[in-house]
Amino acid sequence: MTQENEKVALLDLDGSLADYDGAMHAAMQKLLSPGEVLPSNLYTEGHHPWLENRMNLIKAQPGFWRDLPAIPLGFTVLHWLVDHEYSCNVLTKGPKHTHSAWTEKMQWSARHLPGVPVTITQDKGLVYGKVLYDDYPPYIKRWLLWRPRGKVIMRDTVHNQGFEHPQVLRVFDGADVVVTRHKLDGFLLGAEK
Prior knowledge:
This protein is an alpha/beta fold. The chain contains six helices and six strands, in the order βαααβαββαββα. It is globular and about 50 Å long.
């Protein structure tokens, strides 16, 4: 990234570029008791402590973060941003209790996004950018709090259903790329002013 370029785009890893949700669901399926059903939304408020404990166990396993599969839509968004001459940077939250994830997120980025700068933070709202690509509403809200003209591209997922904001453009896996690209082009023009 050059310092002269003010067109900075921040790209989230987990759930946006890296398939955290798919990997977590697959790992959780292996830990189910007979007859037990896994909730479709692991982020549901008020879920049982045993569910959180299993998720923490999985996240602490060596290689979990490093080996997450890539999400094709995330890389499509990355290429669109590069086409709009944005300087792209990874912006990911470092888990408080899984310090190995910080290293593995760097390893994932080095493997899939060589040369792209990475910022690992506890508070995404503190990091400058004109555009944020993220899937998690609490992080989006925090970032927008300090970016009244910022734009967010949000990957549509089960855990962000119902979240709407005038500065957020929702993008869909498997959607018509031409239509989505047209919407994104117009959306990004507002961020470039």
